[in-house]
């Protein structure tokens, strides 16, 4: 465990040193603040809490941004060190390979977690300071959104690290990471939509669609935040979907967690067997 | 640990990468406190051998024991007492020398003070808080040496430790290695700068195409190779001494200098005659250099190979 924590600490230190932490935090804070204050205008008319509006807009933003940040950070984790020549020296130390993988994962999740909490937290804080009405339910939805955002980041960090252990050059890792982002964040939904339209409700059952949604961490996150929480559901225009989908919030969270754990275990297994 | 137990043992170790045989049938022991050079041209298998000893790769055949354990079994305990300086060592340029060395120290379960003491020892204490990105090649190499010495290792493996070092630092490095070996640490260094190993190491293992072609002290290798000893005489006058037999292939170099080479066993008789002859004003004796030994053993290998 000590080795894992040392590794994680080193990753965070490097993240602070090469400005990853600062850049990600500032980016998320700037976008969150913009959305919070742009979103505050319609809030009065709809009569919903300001924070619920922020949850809807921020989770829509997070779906695109957090996976991208996570993959950019993590695709380099192993292959980058291998190419720079620092990996072999690290592995000659009394440190098991799984400790390297898990430590890097924790470090990167720490960086993304800090950026999300600070960036989005700044928006919530600004809203409260500006005197917007914030309900307890609003805070709850916001808290769930923060937590699931970190989990979404963790899922994509794990995927990025898996890519990083599988390839032997950084360019390939970057290419696969971008491809993965396109596939899971953009193309998956389009393909699913296309499929549903083409099928016209003939063969695809609701359960199949549910399963296809669970097979994508970005969709699990979207459903959890937009359709999972009652007050938010009304705002996000997902009321119908949320009502019909058989996916409970707990199941969606479990799917997200599985998306973090399974690729991480696979990465550990591959890396332990790999010849260097 | 008993002193007579070898620190590193290899028995018929081989490593194949696909069709390439990087190491074939390598067997030797390194006892405690030995200072041994691994010599061979690029691609002879020196780095592969070190990676095998560190457990970074697994042997395709043979048996390998480091500090009594199989290094590839992931034994963290043995690695704690091993130091390695990779060839052309690199560090994250964004971190400072102190940060890197303290991180490595903690990985080996050493306090941060141990890292600082080593920075002092390799003369990097002033640069400790500067980023490695701004270090010179020599400074990075010294940081590499410092990390290899963390945790008072029982064996250090140094891959081409002196490339890129200026002569003064190189001298300091060899002094440090001699001190280490004196303290009971086994030192294995690879090199292809043979001339600088002369007098620094007690044993030389010569590798060629993954094979160990010679292994022994310099004196033993010289005896085995039976390379001729070169003798240079300064003669007074033009008279050619009658004991200079033609089979010593004497030839004049000008300025009254004569060079001849003789087999090792004829050396003492020749020296006595030369010393007794008043025509000989001065005399220089040159044993075969490590370079010549190396070339000899590589050639004899080629002669054996089909």
How would you describe this structure to a colleague?
Chain A: GO terms for molecular function: ABC-type transporter activity. Chain A: Keywords: Membrane, Transmembrane, Transmembrane helix. Chain A: The chain crosses the membrane at residues 53-74, 105-129, 141-163, 175-198, 247-271. The complex is a heterodimer of chains A (276) and B (306). Chain A has one domain (2-273). Chain A has helices at 2-17, 20-46, 50-74, 79-84, 87-91, 97-129, 136-166, 170-199, 206-214, 217-227, 230-236, 239-244, 249-273. Chain A is mostly helical and 276 residues long. In chain A, helix 3 (50-74) runs parallel beside helix 7, helix 3 (50-74) runs antiparallel to helix 10 and helix 10 runs antiparallel to helix 13. Chain A has 13 helices and no strands. By secondary structure, chain B is of the alpha/beta class. Chain B has 3 domains: 8-81 and 153-223, Rossmann fold (3-Layer(aba) Sandwich), CATH 3.40.50; 93-145, no CATH class; 228-287. In chain B, 31% of the residues lie in helices and 27% in strands. Chain B has helices spanning 46-54, 76-80, 97-107, 112-121, 137-148, 167-182, 218-225, 267-276, 290-304; strands at residues 8-17, 20-30, 35-39, 61-66, 82-85, 155-159, 186-191, 203-208, 211-216, 229-235, 251-254, 257-262, 280-286. In chain B, the strands form 3 sheets. A 6-stranded mixed sheet of chain B has the order 5-6-7-3-8-9, sandwiched between helices. A 4-stranded antiparallel sheet of chain B has the order 11-12-10-13, covered by helices on one side. In chain B, a hairpin with a 2-residue loop joins strand 8 and strand 9. In chain B, 40% of the residues are buried. The mean pLDDT of chain B is 86. Chains A and B meet through helix 1 and helix 5 of A and helix 2 and helix 3 of B.
């Amino acid at each position: 465990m000590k080795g894992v924590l040392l590794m994680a600490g080193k990753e965070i230190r490097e993240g602070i040193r090469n400005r990853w932490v600062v850049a990600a935090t500032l980016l998320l804070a700037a976008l969150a603040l913009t959305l919070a204050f742009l979103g505050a205008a319609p809030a009065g008319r709809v009569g919903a809490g300001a924070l619920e509006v922020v949850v809807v807009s921020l989770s829509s933003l997070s779906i695109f941004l957090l996976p991208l940040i996570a993959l950019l950070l993590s695709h380099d984790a192993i292959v980058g060190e291998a190419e720079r020549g620092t990996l072999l020296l690290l592995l000659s130390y009394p440190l098991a390979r799984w400790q390297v993988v898990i430590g890097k994962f924790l470090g990167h999740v720490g960086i993304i977690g800090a950026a999300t909490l600070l960036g989005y937290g700044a928006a919530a804080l600004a809203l409260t300071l500006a005197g917007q009405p914030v309900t307890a339910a609003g805070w709850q939805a916001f808290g769930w959104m923060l937590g699931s955002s970190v989990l979404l980041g963790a899922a994509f960090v794990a995927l990025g690290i898996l890519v990083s252990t599988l390839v032997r050059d950084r360019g390939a890792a970057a290419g696969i990471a971008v491809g993965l982002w396109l596939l899971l964040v953009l193309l998956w939904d389009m393909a699913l939509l296309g499929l549903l339209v083409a099928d016209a409700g003939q063969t695809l059952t609701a359960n199949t669609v549910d399963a296809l949604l669970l097979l994508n961490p970005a969709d699990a996150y979207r459903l959890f935040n937009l359709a999972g929480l009652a007050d938010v559901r009304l705002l996000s225009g997902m009321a119908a979907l949320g009502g019909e989908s058989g996916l409970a919030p707990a199941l969606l969270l479990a799917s997200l967690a599985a998306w973090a754990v399974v690729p991480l275990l696979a990465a550990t297994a591959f890396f332990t067997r790999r010849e260097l | 640990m008993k002193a007579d137990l070898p620190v590193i043992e290899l028995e018929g170790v081989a490593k194949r990468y696909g069709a390439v045989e990087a190491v074939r049938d390598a067997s030797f022991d390194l006892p405690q406190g030995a200072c041994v050079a691994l010599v061979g041209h690029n691609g002879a298998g020196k780095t592969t051998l070190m990676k095998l000893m560190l457990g970074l790769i697994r042997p395709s055949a043979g048996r390998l024991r480091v500090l009594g354990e199989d290094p590839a079994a992931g034994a963290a305990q043995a690695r704690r007492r091993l130091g390695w300086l990779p060839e052309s060592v690199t560090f994250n340029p964004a971190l400072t020398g102190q940060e890197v060395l303290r991180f490595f120290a903690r990985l080996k379960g050493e306090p941060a003070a141990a890292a600082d003491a080593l920075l002092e020892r390799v003369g990097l204490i002033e640069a400790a808080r500067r980023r490695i990105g701004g270090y010179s090649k020599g400074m990075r190499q010294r940081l590499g040496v410092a990390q290899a010495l963390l945790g008072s290792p029982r064996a250090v493996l140094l891959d081409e430790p002196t490339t890129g070092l200026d002569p003064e630092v190189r001298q300091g490095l060899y002094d440090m290695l001699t001190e280490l070996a004196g303290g009971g640490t086994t030192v294995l260094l690879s090199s292809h700068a043979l001339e600088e190993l002369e007098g620094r190491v007690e044993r030389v293992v010569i590798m060629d195409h993954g094979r160990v072609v010679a292994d022994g002290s310099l004196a033993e290798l010289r005896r085995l190779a039976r390379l001729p000893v070169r003798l240079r005489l300064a003669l007074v006058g033009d008279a050619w001494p009658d004991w200079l037999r033609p089979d010593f292939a004497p030839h004049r170099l000008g300025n009254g200098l004569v060079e001849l080479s003789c087999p090792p066993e004829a050396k003492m008789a020749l020296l006595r005659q030369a010393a007794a002859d008043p025509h000989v004003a001065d005399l220089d004796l040159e044993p075969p250099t490590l370079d010549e030994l190396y070339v000899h053993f590589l050639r004899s290998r080629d002669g054996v190979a089909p």
